[in-house]
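User: Can you help me understand a structure? I only have the sequence.
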Amino acid sequence: MTILAIGILIGFLGYVMINNINLAVIELQARGSRVQLWVFIFLALLLECVYCFFSLYCLQCLMAYPQIILAAQYSSIAFLLIIGCWTLFERVKSNVQLQDNIIRRGYWSVFVHPQQIPFWFFWGILLIKKEYLRTDSLSLLFFSLSNVFGSMLVLLCYTRYGNRIIKVLRVQKKHLKNIVGIICIASAGLLLYDVLQHGAGR
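Assistant: Let's start by predicting it. Here is the structure, written out as C-alpha cells:
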C-alpha cells in the first residue's frame, strides 16, 4: 500500500498551494452555485486523472522520443506566462469581473495543463526506478486514482474553508490572484532555466 500513500501525498501537495484552480473553487463556493461548483471539481479531478494516467502510460514512448517532453515543457512555459501575465496585468472595473476572470482562469488551468506531462514523467521515472510503481495499466490506474483522492481532499478543504483561510491570512482576493500570477511567471522561469540547463548538457 506504499504506492497508495505516495499517490495521495503527491495529489495533496500538488493542490495545497494556492493556484488558479483553488481560487476558482473558492469563488464558485462563495457564489452559492453548488451544481457549478461540483461540476468544476469533477472536471478538475477527471482531467487530473487523465493527465496522470496517460502521461505514465506513454512514459516508454516519451523516453524514446524526448522531443515530446521538450515540446510539452515549452508549451508549459508559454501557458504559465500567458496565465501569469493575464492575472497580473488584467484591468477589471468591478469585483464581479474580477471573480469571473478568476473562474475562467480556473477552467483554463483544468483543461490546458501541459506541465502535467513533464511533471508525471519525472515522478514516473523516479517511482519506477525505486520499484514502487509497476507499469501495467491496472497499477497505473490505481496510482492515478490515489493521486486524484489526494487532490480531492485539498479541493474539498478549499470548498469548506477557503474563505476562512483568506480571512485568516488577511489577504484580499485581488492580492491573492496577483500572488498566483507571480507564482505562474516564476514557475515558467524556473522551467525555462531547467530546459536550457538540460539542453546545454546534451
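Now, to help you interpret it: The CA atoms of residues 61 and 176 lie 39 Å apart. The first helix runs from residue 2 to 16. Let me know which part you'd like to focus on.
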